[in-house]
Amino acid sequence: MAVNDYFKNLVNLPRTFVESFIRHGKPTSERARSQTVMSNIFLHIHSTRIHRYTLKKTFTFGLGIMAAASFFILTVTGILLMVYYKPSVDLAYDSIKDIHYVVPSGRFIRNVHRWATNVMIVSVIFHMARVFYTAAYKETRSFNWLMGMGLFVLTLGLSFTGYLLPWDQLAYWAVTICSNIAASPRELTDLLGITHFFDPGGLMKVLLLGSEEIGQDALTRFFWLHCIVLPFFMVMILSVHIWRVRKDGGLARPDHIKDKDLKGIREDENAKHVFENAPQKTYGLMCLVKGKSPVVGKGPENTIPSWPSLFIAEIALFMFTFAIVCVLSYFFDAPLKEIANPTVPENPAKAPWYFLGLQELVSYSAFMGGVGIPTIALLGLALIPYLDREKQTLGRWFDNRTGRRVARHSFLYAAAVTIALLAFTVKFGWLRNWYPDLSQAVIIFINPGTVLLTFFVVWSFHCLYKYDSTRLSAIALFTCFIVSFVILTYFATYHRGPNWHFYWLKSQWPIH
Q1: Residues near 197 by Cβ (< 8 Å), separated by ≥ 6?
Q2: Where are any strands of DSSP class E within 118-233?
Q3: Domain check: are 195 and 85 in the same one?
Q4: 371 and 184 in contact (C-beta within 8 Å)?
Q5: Could you list the residue range(s) of the whole structural domain that residue 247 is in?
Q6: Is 52 part of any domain?
Q7: Residue 386 has pLDDT above 50, yes or no
Q8: Cβ of 69: how many Cβ atoms within 10 Å?
Q9: What is the 3 state secondary structure string of 288-355?
Q10: Tell me: the pLDDT tens digits for 455-506?
Q11: Considering its fold, how many domains does the chain have in total?
C-alpha cells in the first residue's frame, strides 16, 4: 500500500539521502575510489590518483592548502560579521564596538577574521616562494603562475579594503597613506607641468575613494569591494588555479625520484608499470587515452588514489590552520582605536604591515616607492616564466647545489646592501638633506629605492654572466626582492616612530 511505502521511505530517508550524495557507496576498490572522486563536484577538482611525492611534507609544506583554508575561514567569519556591521560613517565604529563587546563570541570571531587574514597573506607569499624555488612555474605551468600572481594581488586587495571598515584612527590614517600612494604619480606630472590636463594619480585616488577625501563614498566602496567584488574574483581565479594544477599534471615533481624521497609515504600495490611499451599514451581519469599532455608517458607508478590519502591530508591542514588562527585569536585581540578623526592625524601614521616596506620607500620618493618600484617588481614576477625558458628538472628545491649557493649568496648580498643603505640614510640622510634646492627630477629617479633596485639588477646580471643561466639569474633577483621586503617591513614596523624618525625602541619615542 502507498501508506506503507510512504513510512518505509521515511524510515529509509537517511540512507537514501546518503546514497544520493555518495553515488558509489563506500570505496572498496580502485575503480570505486576513482568513481567517488569523479561523481563529487568538491572532489572532482582533484585527479583520481596522485603521485606519492605530492604528499611529502617538505615538498610543499601545505602552503597552498593553508592559504585556501584561510580564505574559507575568512568567508565564514566575514558573513557572520556582516550580520552586525553597518557600513555607515556614523554607525560603523559603534557596530564594531558592539561586535567586540556586546555580541556573544563577537570579539573572538573578529579576532579569527583578523588573524586568518594575516595567515593567508603570509602563506600566499611563502607559497609563491615555494613555487618559484622549485621551478614549478615552467613549461605548461606558466599561465598558472600568472593566476597565482592574480591571487596574490587579490589577497592584498581584500585585506586592504577590509582595513577601513572599523572606521577607527588606525584604519582611517592607514588608508589615507595608501590613498596618497595611489595619488603619487602627481609627483611626476607636477614636475612635467601636465597635471592640470593629465592626472593619473588623481584619477587613481578618486577611483579608490570615490572622492578626494575619505568619507562615506570610500567606506561604501571599500565595503562592496571587500564583501562582494573581490571575493567573487578570488573564487573564480582560485578555481582556475586549482583546476590548472590538475590539468598540468599535478604538482611539479622531478622525473626521477629516489626511493629515499618516498620513505614513509603510503604505497599502492595496484600501481602497475603500464607504459614501458606505450610511450605515447596518457593515464587519464580512469583509462588510457591517446594524445599529448603534460603527463604523456607517465603512468601510475608510485601513485596512490586521491581518496582518501590526499583528502585526509587536506583536512588535517585545514584543522592545523584553524587551530593556529584560534590560538592567536584567543591571546591577541584585533586592534580597535578611537573613532576616526580627520582633524587629529596619527603620528606615526602607518600603512598595514604588508605595505610598510613600500611606505619606507615612499618616504624617499612617493612616485618611485609607491608606483614605480612595485610595478617593476610585479611585472618582473609575471615575466619570469616567459624569460626563464631553460629546460631543467622540476620540483627540486633550488634545482641543485649551484642553485642553493646562488640563493645563499643572494640572501647575504641583499641583506648587506639593504641594511647598509638604511644605516646610511639614517646617519647621513639623502640628497634632499644635502641639497635643499635640488631638482625634484633627481629625487624621483635617484633615491634609496632606485639605488637598491639597481644593486639587485646588477647582481642578477652578474649571476647571469657568471653561470650563463637565466634560471640562476632569476633565483638571485627573486631572493634579493624577498630579503629586502622582509628587512624594509621590519625596519618600518619597529624602528620608525613619530614623524618617521628612526628609533631603536618604541620606549624612546617622545612623549606628547
Answers
A1: none
A2: none
A3: yes
A4: yes
A5: 44-264+303-351
A6: yes
A7: yes
A8: 25
A9: EEECCCCCECCCCCCEEEHHHHHHHHHHHHHHHHHHHHHHHHHHCCCCCCCECCCCCCCCCCCCCHHH
A10: 999 999 999 999 999 999 999 999 999 999 999 999 999 999 998 999 998 8
A11: 2
